[in-house]
Each structure stands twice: as structure tokens, then as C-alpha cells.
């Protein structure tokens, strides 16, 4: 895991060990105090202080060279890896105990005429086991740190891949949705041109408004409810021109919810579906109600259609449709907010007495800014 250079308050760089300098030096001081307390009844306190300070002081300096080596060459199952770390451990430990003993003798005034070979042999006999345990402890800490860093890297990579996948899914779904809406409207314009050219021209102008608003929201994963309502309002104007007095729309959206964030193009397909099943089949048309309200800590969006013919009458379409638009909404909600969770976003279609109701439920963390 190659990261940017860490702050100078840390012992190392490039992600090999995230230890603040005070913690690093403090750990060696604690190790020295522990060793001192263990031997306090077996040697004079002054000698213990001097030799422990020399021993662990040298280790703290050698550790700055040993830790990058441990990270660069992690322990593997291959015999060469074990041989490498065995030799490295022997060299580091022998260097520490020899230099530490030599420094301790000098500080205690026991230098004498001993040669480096004599000091190294004495250090091997008296301190090598302790040095080996110290090296093993340091090595274990470094390996655990490396595994945790690797696990974090894998988690970040998986999260990044998941985000890229979700974005690709959303882009694909939006690419399906916008042509679907456009083709439906152009088909309506084509039909109008055969018997009412002026009305077709008005619809075409309103379509330009809708496309302008849709392009404004392209590339965005969320928009405000106010922005979505602006687009839906432009679309409703198109349908009002088509159906004239056969379509009535009621807006029940509190001003306090206008700033809530929702997926773009989530209401327009619901309104389109409501008109298709609750207005178009009836000779007298129908009524559409668009609602937004709070539920628990989330946001609920509803589009309800009520046909003006008797329930179940001729031409009635009682079954809520699940065409491209609604299937698209469901897919985007699952991609954005997850599926199968207790408080996941949901799209529900319900038959009512004289029509149908489509309900989109967004959890509070998704809707956001609910006052």
C-alpha cells in the first residue's frame, strides 16, 4: 500500500507502519521499565537503569532500520524467507546486545581491556535470548501492522470498485430512462400532428423545457426535490396540453421538504405511469395527486391516480404497471441505497378504490436535510 508521505510526527513513511513518534519511543521506554521491574530484585537499581537504557536505547535506533526491512521482506512459507529472516534476526540481535553491553560498561566505568570479540561473546551468552525475544516481538507487531494495512487497502479497493460498479449501473439506467421518456413524448407529438398542428407545436416547446431540465441534472446522482418538481411540472404541462380538461393535478408538497435530496427522474416516470393507467383509459380522464411527506426519519413521495369512471368500468386499468420507467426507478433505488435492508429505499405499487398509488420511500440518510 503505497501512500503519500506521512506527517513528520510519524516514525515512517509510505504506509509501512502508522506509529506517531512519541508512541514509538514511548513503547521502548515501557519495554525498558518492564525489564527493569522484572530484574529489580536481582541487581542494583543503578546498574539496571544504565544497562536497560543502553540496551533498549540501541534497540530503538536499530528498529528504525529493522522495521522497513521487515516490511520490505515479509515472512513467507518458502525456506529462503525463513533463512533470510533468521540471518537478519541474528545480525540485528547480536549488534544490539554487543553495542548495548559495550555502552553499558562504559557508562558504569567497567570498560577495562576487553576487546570487541570479548564483548560480543559475553553479550551472546548473557543477552542473546532477550534480544531474540525483543526482535520477535517487534517482528510480530510489524507483520500485524502490515496485514492490517493490506486489509484496509483491500477494503478501499473493493469499496472503490463497488462505487464504480454502482455508478456504471446508474449511468446505464439513466441512459435507458431518458430515451424512454423522449420516445413516448415524440410519439405523442407525432400523433398530434395528424389532427392538431398548433397543439403539437406547443407540446414540442414544452418538451424543449423538459430536455433542458433533464440535461441540467445529467451526471448527478441526486437532485433537490424542488429541482425534480420543476422537471415534473414541465412534463405535466405537456400532458395537460394533450388531455386538456381530462387531466387534473394536485400538488401536496410542503415547502419545508423542497431541499431534500432525491435521485433525479424518480417522480416523472411515476406521473407518466399514473397518467397512462389512471387518465388515458377513461373518457372523462382522471385526477393525479403528487405528495411528499415525512415518515419516521425518512421521506415519502407518492403519486396517486383516480380515474373518473366507475371502479372497474370499461377501459379501466386497475393493475399498476411495471414498465421500463418503474423498473428503472426500482433498479436505481437498489443501486443507490441497497436492497433487502430493514430501512432500504423502496418502490411500492398499490391498487386503491378508484385507481392506484405509487410510493417511493427514502431513508433519512438518503433523503437528507429533512427539517
Describe this structure in words.
With 371 residues, the protein is α+β, with helices and mostly antiparallel strands. The protein has helices spanning 21-38, 45-72, 79-108, 116-192, 197-217, 225-243, 268-278, 324-337, 364-367, and strands at residues 223-224, 247-252, 261-262, 286-295, 298-307, 346-351, 355-362. The strands form two sheets. The chain has a five-stranded mixed sheet. The chain has a two-stranded antiparallel ribbon with strand order 1-3. A hairpin with a 3-residue loop joins strand 6 (346-351) and strand 7. The longest helix has 77 residues, at 116-192.
Distinctive features:
7 strands; 371 residues; Heat Shock Protein 90; disordered N terminus; two-stranded antiparallel ribbon; rod-shaped; single chain; alpha+beta; 12% strand; 2 domains; 5-stranded mixed beta sheet
Low-confidence stretches: 1-18, 309-320
Mean pLDDT across every amino acid position: 73
Strand portion = 5-15%
Structural class: alpha+beta
Integer-rounded radius of gyration: 37 Å
Sketch the major β-sheet.
5 strands, mixed
At a glance:
This protein has 371 residues and is of the alpha+beta class. The protein contains nine helices and seven strands; from the N terminus they run αααααβαββαββαββα.
Amino acid at each position: 500500500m503505497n501512500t503519500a508521505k506521512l506527517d513528520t510526527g510519524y516514525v515512517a513513511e509510505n504506509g509501512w507502519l502508522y506509529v506517531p513518534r512519541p508512541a514509538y519511543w514511548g513503547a521502548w521506554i515501557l519495554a525498558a521499565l518492564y525489564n527493569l521491574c522484572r530484574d529489580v530484585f536481582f541487581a542494583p537499581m543503578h546498574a539496571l537503569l544504565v544497562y536497560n537504557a543502553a540496551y533498549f536505547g540501541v534497540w530503538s535506533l536499530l528498529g528504525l532500520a529493522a522495521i522497513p526491512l521487515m516490511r520490505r521482506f515479509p515472512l513467507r512459507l518458502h525456506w529462503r524467507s525463513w533463512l533470510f529472516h533468521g540471518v537478519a534476526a541474528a545480525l540485528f540481535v547480536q549488534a544490539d546486545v554487543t553495542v548495548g553491553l559495550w555502552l553499558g560498561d562504559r557508562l558504569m566505568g567497567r570498560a577495562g581491556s576487553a576487546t570487541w570479540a570479548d564483548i560480543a561473546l559475553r553479550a551472546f551468552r548473557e543477552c542473546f535470548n532477550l534480544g531474540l525475544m525483543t526482535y520477535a516481538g517487534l517482528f510480530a507487531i510489524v507483520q500485524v501492522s502490515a496485514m492490517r494495512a493490506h486489509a484496509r487497502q483491500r477494503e478501499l479497493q473493493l469499496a472503490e470498485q463497488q462505487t464504480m460498479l454502482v455508478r456504471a449501473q446508474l449511468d446505464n439506467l439513466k441512459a435507458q430512462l431518458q430515451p424512454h421518456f423522449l420516445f413516448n413524448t415524440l410519439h405523442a407529438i407525432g400523433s398530434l400532428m395528424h389532427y392538431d398542428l398548433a397543439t403539437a407545436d406547443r407540446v414540442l416547446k414544452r418538451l424543449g423545457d423538459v430536455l433542458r431540465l433533464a440535461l441540467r441534472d445529467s451526471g448527478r446522482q441526486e437532485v433537490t426535490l424542488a429541482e425534480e418538481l420543476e422537471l415534473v411540472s414541465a412534463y405535466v404541462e405537456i400532458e395537460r396540453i394533450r388531455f386538456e380538461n381530462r387531466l387534473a393535478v394536485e400538488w401536496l408538497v410542503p415547502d419545508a421538504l423542497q431541499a431534500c435530496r432525491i435521485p433525479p427522474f424518480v417522480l416523472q416516470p411515476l406521473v407518466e405511469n399514473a397518467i397512462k393507467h389512471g387518465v388515458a383509459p377513461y373518457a372523462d380522464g382522471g385526477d393525479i395527486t403528487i405528495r411528499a411527506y415525512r415518515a419516521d426519519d425518512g421521506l415519502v413521495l407518492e403519486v396517486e391516480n383516480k380515474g373518473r369512471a366507475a371502479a372497474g368500468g370499461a377501459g379501466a386499468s386497475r393493475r399498476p404497471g411495471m414498465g421500463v420507467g418503474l423498473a428503472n426507478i426500482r433498479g436505481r433505488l437498489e443501486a443507490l441505497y441497497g436492497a433487502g435492508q430493514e430501512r432500504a429505499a423502496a418502490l411500492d405499487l398499490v391498487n386503491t378504490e378508484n385507481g392506484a398509488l405509487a410510493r417511493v420511500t427514502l431513508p433519512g440518510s438518503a433523503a437528507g436535510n429533512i427539517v
